[in-house]
Amino acid sequence: MAAVNASLMAMKGSSLQQWRSAERSTAFGDIRNNVVPTSRGLRVKCMAEGDTQPKDSSTPSTQSTIPIPPPPGPKRVSTKFADVFAFSGPAPETINGRLAMLGFVSALGVEIASGKDLFSQLATGGVPLFLGSAVLLSVASVIPMFKGVSKESKSQAIMSSGAEMLNGRFAMIGLIALALTEYLKGGPLIS
After folding, report:
1. pTM over 0.70
2. If DSSP states are collapsed to H, E and C, what string results for the chain?
3. How confident is the model over 86-101, as pLDDT tens digits?
């Protein structure tokens, strides 16, 4: 403490008699006001100490009488047709994403194997194959939704519903970009 007093006296060049601590007692506890010198004058620092009054142990605790509510159950998924096929429902993006993933991979695979662009693939018998796979994937995707099973409940670490949604969105963009690029180029993307 003597070293602190000496350093404070050296900073101000005067005695520490003008900086005194004051203590007072309030309902919240004891408060100490420490006056600390600064370069522009004095700065007052207040600190409150914890309540030193003994707590009354005769008042009963109400924590044991409040019942704890049960945890909420699993989120119920609506199985109504209008809810499943709503604009923000689970079916449209799931089905479109799965069809886009199948279409993008199939279009690139056939293009590599035969050298035909996307439009010539559709013109030479690709429409019936597309419609058949679209119906098959749509029915296979909708049946679990009408049973109340959500994609999130079957999600795993690697094969997650978020990854499927993201891959489906990229496949939708990729299929449109493939068709637009081949149309502007006038031929297959991969020659």
Report:
1. no
2. CHHHHHHHHHHHCCCHHHCCCEEEEECCEEEEEEEEEECCEEEEEEEECCCCCCCCCCCCCCCCCCCCCCCCCCCCCCCCHHHHCCCCCHHHHHHHHHHHHHHHHHHHHHHHHHCCCHHHHHHHHHHHHHHHHHHHHHHHHHHHHHCCCCCHHHCCCCCCHHHHHHHHHHHHHHHHHHHHHHHHHCCCCCC
3. 888 888 889 999 999 9
